[in-house]
Design brief:
The chain is of the alpha/beta class and 282 residues long. It has 3 domains: 45 residues; 117 residues, no CATH class; 106 residues, no CATH class. It contains 11 helices and 9 strands. It has a 9-stranded parallel beta sheet. The longest helix has 14 residues. The radius of gyration is 21 Å and the shape is globular.
Length: 282
């Protein structure tokens, strides 16, 4: 049943949105109170789009239906975080269509390889966090341009490309404070040193590797010649869980690495310790 507002619209909206965020289980009830609450609250259902789980089908279908309706569904403008494994849920074309309409996305992670035709679309988004293979997006690793508008507002960049010369141009991404790259024996340590020297604004540079036994990992990092406290070798096992945690404002690999660096600066941890171990995610 439609109800008449008691409070000013701005205050009423804030009350309902706060209630929805604090008590997500109440959202179905809040949606049915009045049309105005439906318009306010429905976008909150789609703020975080994780399409990597077996239970994501209904979400994928709802978003695709909203994108192909005429006019497109207003809730698409409420999407803020998008995580995709690749083209296993949506086709590449469907992904591009939906991103074109989700104009408020600030965080995008794509496990597959994006075609270069997606670059103009991503460049129009107010992205703060990006996790992708950059080489395919720019039609080759040697063509990656870190001065491109795509990087203008990025603060967190998680690059999947293991070997590429573009790491030497990270300083061109002037807003960047957090960088993660694949670790391992192929990582050129002189390049890491150069990035850290050229980017004093970087809070942390993470080299990520799959879980190793702690003794093996410690033996490996003993030979890493990096002394900058901002450099962290991090073990991880569940990327999607970390990403979802960050999207909901909970600790993730970035915040854990930040804390690790801060503790080294406070001399709570020896500055020579590079390897950060975290419990395995289920």
């Amino acid at each position: 049943m439609e109800t008449h507002p008691v409070f000013p619209a701005e205050l009423e909206r804030e009350i309902f949105e706060t209630a929805a965020r604090l008590h997500p289980s109440m959202i179905p009830v809040l949606l049915r109170i009045a049309r105005r609450t439906l318009l306010w609250i429905e976008p909150l259902l789609y703020e975080v789009v994780d399409l990597t789980t077996f239970s994501c089908t209904h979400l994928a279908v709802a978003l695709l239906r909203g994108a192909t309706s005429n006019p497109p569904a207003p809730f698409l403008r409420g999407v803020r975080h998008v995580l995709l494994n690749g083209a296993d849920v949506w086709s590449f074309g469907q992904t591009c269509t939906i991103l074109t309409l989700c104009t408020g996305v600030i965080d995008f992670a794509y496990g597959g390889r994006l075609d270069h035709t997606c670059l103009p679309i991503l460049s129009t988004l107010p992205l703060r966090r990006l996790s992708v293979h950059l080489g395919p997006l720019f039609e080759g690793p040697d063509r990656v341009d870190l001065a491109h508008p795509l990087f203008a507002s990025l603060t967190h960049l998680d690059v999947y490309d293991p070997r590429s010369d573009f790491y030497g141009h990270v300083a061109l991404a002037t807003a960047l404070t957090h960088l993660r790259m694949p670790g391992g024996v192929h990582l050129a340590w002189h390049m890491v040193d150069s990035v850290l020297a050229a980017c004093p604004r970087l809070t942390v540079l993470v080299a990520s590797v799959a879980h190793l036994p702690e003794s093996s990992a410690n033996q490996w990092v003993e030979h890493i010649p990096i002394t900058d406290v901002r450099f962290v070798v991090q073990m991880y096992s569940n990327y999607a869980a970390d990403w979802v945690a960050a999207a909901h404002g909970r600790p993730d690999f970035w915040s854990v690495a930040e804390d690790f660096v801060a503790r080294k600066r406070r001399k709570e941890i020896d500055a020579s310790i590079l390897c950060l171990f975290r419990p395995r995610s289920p």
